[in-house]
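Repro:
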Amino acid sequence: MKLPKVPTIYNVHLVAIIATLGGMLFGFDISSMSAIVVTSQYIDYFNNPAGVIQGAIGSALAAGSVVGSVVAGPLSDKMGRRDSILFACLFWLIGTAVQVSCQNYGQLIAGRVLNGFTVGITSSQVPVYLAEIAKADKRGSIVIIQQLAIEVGILIMYFIGYGCASIDGPASFRTAWGTQFIPCVFLMLGLPFLPRSPRWLAKVGRDQEAIQVLANIQANGDVNDPLVIAEWEEIQTVMHAELEAGRGWRKFFKNGMWKRTLAGMSVQAWQQLAGANVIVYYLTYIASMAGLTGNVAMVTSGIQYAVFIVFTGIMWLFIDQTGRRSLLIFGALGMGFCHFVVGGVMGAHSTYVPGGVGDPPNANIVISVHKGAPANTVITFSYLLIVVYALTLAPGCWIYAAEVWSLGTRATGMSLAALSNWLFNFALGMFTPPAFVNITWKIFIVFGVLCVAAAGWFFVTYPETCGKTLEEVELMFSPDGPYPWNTRKGDSRLAAEVEAVAARKRKDEAEPPAVGEVEKV
């Protein structure tokens, strides 16, 4: 008996919601530690891990993600964007099972590495998939759903961990970590209903399927719609140019491609070097430094994650009306200012506590900010830093990284971008807990300086990509392209190409071409 065909969803926003459950996995794993690392159950069971050991536990996710990012591109080119995400989910199930059953911090690290392998694939290929199915003028609002999903995952998992903190013994963190199975199962159930990327189908020679999927997404199935024809012509033109450019790693550096490789990798590196993850991962530590304890500290940290979602949601409404360059430049400067304030106040108004702050003492927290205005300022500007990050670099870096690659380099290129993100994430994950112990408040000054450097880098090297087709971005990075500071959002040539196709059809006065004929255009 023939099995019934699974219906395919072509509503782009619904497709994005399902696909970005991969981002929710990322968010779950980030905050699977945030609410737990300060609990007595975790501290007692793992013998109060501090410094390098806590750094290894925290950065294990990034270590696995580095490996996942390396294999993601070739895997995605071979299997397709959708199926590579489905494959990655298997490792999440295994990694979560290892974490739930862990007997020591070594097994916990192993489980987080396996989960990180999944995140390395999904964090690179979900934005690729979304960028390849979205219309040019809506691409930012589609890709930003990935960032929203990450933040929703962070918030949900944080409060699950907070709720589980009332459970006695190891069952506290085992229960919390076990809930990580849930978003993965929903993602695996939803993926078969999603269409394949039309650009990937074109890349592997399945032209008729590519045209039909493009038509279903862009024009309610009408393969003769001028928009479909114009976009298909662009895809074909770029594909032919890329075939002439040759294969292998040289295509990432030949004919100006090095500019795009540098932009895609560096924007992800700067997202980490801007230091927002110090707040996202360790706000519970900062709350303890500011004198907040118990439920007050936990709820204060949880509210920060809700603020993260609210302001990213606000940016979702305006992301395609706002230039990528301005978001990145002013976002980096705003974050740098917040880092300088937090570090300056901590340096001027804190007391060194060598035994650790808290009950039981946490060996990672060795300064106590004076109560009153200093403590309130630290918390306020920590919140403000997250607000600025949520409005700017959090969505902007992922969107920009997804937009800069060519069709032939997009899957592997985005893997390189994610690899850059995770390498720096790993390095900072190892650096941050020891830095809290050894240089205390100076860590914020370091990140403040890095934010100012990032703003300068964005201004000098990143052309504007907002409102342009993925194929038009080719011109922005070409050897004859404009200086980055002379580029503006919009001004897409696609509208003119659509009108040209429509005029051609009117002039021809012939019957609309069949699918096979469209394919030859």
